Amino acid sequence: MSRFAVQRLGVGMLVTVTILVVVPIILVVGYIIAQGLSALNAEFLFTAPRDGMREGGIWPAIVGTFWLTVGTAIFSVPLGLAIAIYLSEYARDNTFTRLIRLAIINLAGIPSVVYGLFGLGLFVLALQFGSSILAGSLTLSIMTLPVIISTSEEALRAVPQSFRTVSISLGGTRWQTIRKVVLPNALPGIISSRPSPHARCADRVPRCGVARKTTRRTGADTRVRRYQRTASPPMECATRSTATAPVSARTRSTAASISAAWSRLLPVGSA
User: Fold this and answer.
1) pLDDT tens-digit readout, 75-128
2) Beta-strand (E) ranges in 20-162?
3) What are phi and psi of 36, to 5 degrees?
4) Cβ density class 51-71: b for 16+ within 10 Å, e for less
5) Domain range for residue 193?
6) CA distance to 108, 145, 218, 233, 235, per residue, from 122 (Å)
């Protein structure tokens, strides 16, 4: 078999495999869009949910996701880029820096629920930020920071060392070399890796639990007296009477199990 025939056979096999992979995805996505397009209207997009999320729209979720993502980027991007520059350009390659990189990699693999509990304890309760955009942004910033540091450091290390050597030999300082040579060349890699942690951040925003705290003031001292969990809409719907919405016994049992688990995690009681 000639080289040209082998090449045509290889191209044909690649095209066939591509079609077998892409066509089912297109069909599934097209079916979902066709079935859900009728529900996309102005009321669904620009109104708040009503009646336990049985009616209304998703406007508060859209606004909350937008501002939490923006706040996360404001807190995490400058700090993550600064740490990446230090690790790549200033820090020596020794045991300490290797331990730091190992810790960053391990932090990137921690489940998001752990970061959520950490943010709940630190920002919501200890620092008394409450259920606010600030508390959510700081929590998500801690979650996305390891990914930003790792990807930014990889992009900085991908810049050839000869660029730095030539810049310094021409009289540039280390910071001038970083600012005018290294960063411009690493910028495409940094930008291309940026949507990944922010997409993860936006994905975690709708999963935040609904909570309420009551406080008691004693003079100038303000402390948390009681932390009460407010049932989220799915649990609320499951615990309503069957006259409003018929619910199976299995669903009510599952809701009761979840409620009991949350009660053990966040006990309700006076301080």
Assistant:
1) 999 999 999 999 999 998 899 999 999 999 999 888 888 998 999 999 999 998
2) none
3) -95, -5
4) ebeeeebbeeeeebbeebbeb
5) 59-204
6) 19, 17, 22, 26, 26
Confidence band of 224 (pLDDT split at 50, 70, 90): very low
Please state, in angstroms and rounded to a whole number, the distance separating the CA atoms of residues 186 and 84. 12
CA distances from 256 to 211, 238, 239, 251, 263 (A): 18, 9, 8, 9, 10
Mean pLDDT of the chain: 78
Is 12 among the domain residues?
A: no
- What b/e sequence results for 187-203 when a residue is b if at least 16 CB atoms lie within 10 Å of its CB, and e otherwise? eebbeebbeebbeebbe
267 C-beta neighbours (distance < 10 Å), count: 10
Signed CA dihedral, 30, 32, 36, 40: sign only: negative
192: domain CATH number is 1.10.3720.10
215 domain residue, yes or no: no
Rounded distance between C-alpha atoms, residue 36 and residue 23, angstroms: 20
Q: CA geometry: angle at 84 spanning 207 and 180, to 5°?
A: 125
Q: How many domains does the chain have?
A: 1
Residue type, 252: R
